Amino acid sequence: MLDYAAFPKQRQLLLTERLQIDGKLVCSELAEEFGVSEHTIRRDIIELSKLGICKKVYGGAIVVSPAQGSLAERASKIEHEKRLIAQAAIKLISPGSTIFLDSGTTNLAIVHSLPSEIDITLITNSIPIANEALRLPNIELILLGGKVTKSVGGALNADAQNELSKMFIDMCFIGICAFSPEHGITGFNYDDACFKRALVKQSGQLIAAVSHEKYETIAKHKVVGLEGISDLILCKEKLSRKQLGELNISGLAVHLV
Amino acid sequence: MLDYAAFPKQRQLLLTERLQIDGKLVCSELAEEFGVSEHTIRRDIIELSKLGICKKVYGGAIVVSPAQGSLAERASKIEHEKRLIAQAAIKLISPGSTIFLDSGTTNLAIVHSLPSEIDITLITNSIPIANEALRLPNIELILLGGKVTKSVGGALNADAQNELSKMFIDMCFIGICAFSPEHGITGFNYDDACFKRALVKQSGQLIAAVSHEKYETIAKHKVVGLEGISDLILCKEKLSRKQLGELNISGLAVHLV
DNA sequence: ATACATTATGCTCGATTATGCAGCTTTCCC
DNA sequence: GGGAAAGCTGCATAATCGAGCATAATGTAT
Known about the structure:
Chain A folds into two domains: 3-63, Arc Repressor Mutant, subunit A, CATH 1.10.10; 71-256, Rossmann fold (3-Layer(aba) Sandwich), CATH 3.40.50.1360. Chain A has 257 residues and is α/β, with parallel strands linked by helices. Chain A has ten helices and 15 strands. In chain A, 38% of the residues are buried. The radius of gyration of chain A is 20 Å and the shape is globular. Chain A binds chain B through residues 4, 6-10, 13, 125, 127-128, 130-131, 134-135, 137, 140-148, 150, 153-155, 159-160, 163, and chain B through 23-24, 26, 55, 57-60, 62, 65-66, 125, 127-128, 130-131, 134, 137, 140-148, 150, 153-155, 159-160, 163. Strand 7 (146-149) of chain A pairs antiparallel with strand 6 of chain B. Chain B binds a DNA duplex (30 and 30 nucleotides) through helix 3.
C-alpha cells in the first residue's frame, strides 16, 4: 500500500491525475500498484464516473469527452500541443535522475504534467516552475537564487550562474525562444542567452522541446547549435517532409508527437 | 502525552504542520502519538476542516486541493483578517527601502495586497511569494536559492543563509508559526527556526504580523523574544484587555486592526 | 464563596464506510 | 461458439464515525 494513498479520496485524486496524464485507467495495473483489490479500484472508478470525471469501460476507464477538463486547455490548440510535448518529454525522464527545467511555458507544462509520485532531483531558476513543483512530494527541489529578471521569471545573474557551475545535470530541458535547423537555439535576451549557455555546459543530455510557433525562427543571441542538442521534441503534423530531412543528423534523436 | 502538545491549539497547529508535510492525517496514528483518544484527534480535525485547512475523510483528513483551498480561503474569515493585517503592514513600508518577506500565508497576503506601482527592493526565500511578486513591475526582486524545504515552500539551507548574510535588510516581515507574549516567536521546523534567526540578525526593523489563531501558542524552536520585535500587528477584537497589558513593552509598537 | 457556564476529554453504542471474497453474469477476442 | 478476463451482486468483517452523556478543570458571575 502506498503511504500517500492511505484514504479512498487520495487514491481517487491520484486516479484523476493519472487519467489526465495517461488518458486512461486500467483496473488490474492500478490494483497492484496501490495494493488493493481490483474491486476497490473499480469502486473508485464508479465514484469518479458519477462525478463525470471519467467514463467507465471494460477493463478500466477513459477520459470523458474532450469538452471537459481545463477550460483554457481546450480553448487553444497551442495548449494542447504543449501538453502532448510535455507528455513526450516526461517519458524521457528516468527515476532518480537530476533534471534541470529552464524557464518557459513549455517547461511549465512539463512540470504541470509530472506524476505526483515521481522521484527525481529537480533544479530550476524559474519561479513559476518551482511554485508548481512544490506539489510533488518525492522530488528534491533546488532553486537557483539571485536577482530576478521579471520578463523571464527567474534569476539569471552571476550568483545564479555561479551556483549552477557547481551542479552536474543529467538532463536539461532548455527553454526555447527561437529555433531553426540551421542556427539551433537562439534567445531574445542577452542575460538569458548567457545563462542558457552556462546551463548547456553543465548538462549531459540536452533536450529541446519546440512548439510549432518557435520553429524556423531566429533571435539575436546564439545559445547552442543543433549539434549540441541530444533530443528534439516536435509536433508531427506541423512539419513538412523537407523540414524533417534537415533534422537527420547523427547524435540527434527526434521525437514526434 | 507530549508536553509541546498540552493544549488543543498547540495540537492543532502541529496537525496543520503535519498535514503540510505528509499531505494527510491518520486519526489512529496521531491518537497514539499524542497520547489522546482518537475521538479527540477527530474533534481537532473537525476544527481544522471548519477553517478550510483540511478535508475530513474516513479515517483522518487530507489536504484540500489548491483549487478548492483558494476558494474556501477567500470566503473564510481567516482571509479577511489576513487582508486587514496585510493592509496595516503595507502602511509601514517606505518607498525605496529593502524589505524581506519570509514564508507564510500572512506574508503571501501582504505581497498580494502590495500596490502595483510600489518601488522597493524585495528579498524573499519563499517561492509562492516570489511568484506573486513577479506581477510588480517596479520592484527589484531578489530570491534566495538553495535546496527547497517543501513544507515551507522555500530554501532554508546553508546556501540560502550564506546569501542572506551578505544582505542588509531595512524591514523584515517574519513568518510566524507560533507567538506568545512570554516566549515571543517560536517555530515548528528546526531548519526554519535557524533560518529565521539568521534573518533577524540581518534586519533593522523586525515586524511580526500575528493572526489570531497563532496567538498564545508555542512551538518547539525559539526564534526571537518579544524584545527583538519592533512592530507587532494584531487583530483587535480577538484580544482581552489583560492580553494587551502583557504587550506594553518599551520599544515595541503594537498596531491593532 | 458558591453556583453556574465553558472547555477539553473520554466512553459507549448503534450507524456508516471501506474493503475483500464468493459465485454468477457479461463482455471480449479468437 | 467457447474460453478467458472482467464485472456485478450480495454478504461478511473490521474499522471508523457521530450523538449523547459523564467527568474534571477552569473561568465567570452573583
